[in-house]
Amino acid sequence: MRSVISALCAAILLAGCIGNPSRQADVAIHDLGNLSGAWSAPGLPVGGLAVRASSWLDAPAQLYRLDYADPLRRHAYANSRWAAPPAELLERALQRHVVFGQPDFAGRGCRLALVLDTLEQRFSSERASEVVLEVRARLLPSHGDGPLARRAFAVRRPAPTPDARGGVAATQAAAQALADEMARWLAAFAREKPQAAVFCRAE
Predict the structure, then answer these.
(1) What pLDDT digit, counting tens, does each position of 125-158 carry?
(2) How far is 16 from 125, CA to CA, in rounded Å?
(3) What is the DSSP string of the chain?
């Protein structure tokens, strides 16, 4: 009888060990994909872009907040996360769009330094939510650290569904909107202060 019980216990433990990896495999891992559109800041070459983040965004957790129930508490989806910390994903997406999207990109020019302050899905009710993306940007000369221009961006995009998948879709839309707004900002800067373009001149 003892041998039968021992065998059953061993089988249960083995099933538990085998089951854990399968539950881990059920976690959906997301990135931001490729941003569309073309770079549109003629005369203002950008040779580098870096994004750093607030400490609570250093992990790949996909965050959300229930504004209607507990607005001061931050949650993370258990079965959905980012492929890397959000700042790294945003940096790669924007680099492809802004830096490498320039037809005459030579790896030299001004630098964009971004700080990611907020990226989370906020629920106003059980069925409605939006993603909030807040970034501070500085345009730095190719040599030196004094900013030529700076701007804060706050982008909000509704989630098509009230879940993690909807949050991913809204985050991708927010990243695209951020890239488009940044391009318009820099294009306007180049028009309004053409003399500043000399600090971005490739050498």
Answers:
(1) 999 999 999 999 999 988 776 899 999 999 999 9
(2) 37
(3) -HHHHHHHHHHHHHHHHHHHHHHHHTSEEE------S----TT--EEEEEEEE-GGGSS-EEEEEETTT-TT-EEEEEEEEESS-HHHHHHHHHIIIIITT-TT--S-SEEEEEEEEEEEEEEEETTEEEEEEEEEEEEE-SSSSS-SEEEEEEEEEE-SSSSHHHHHHHHHHHHHHHHHHHHHHHHHHHHH-GGGGGGG---
**Is the separation of the CB atoms in 180 and 93 below 8 Å?**
no
DSSP lists the bridge partners of residue 82 as 30
Number of CB atoms found within 10 A of residue 18's CB? 9
Rounded to whole angstroms, the Cα distance separating 140 from 143 reads 8
Q: What are the tokens at 176?
A: 């695209």
- pLDDT tens digits, residue range 110-129? 889 999 999 999 999 999 99
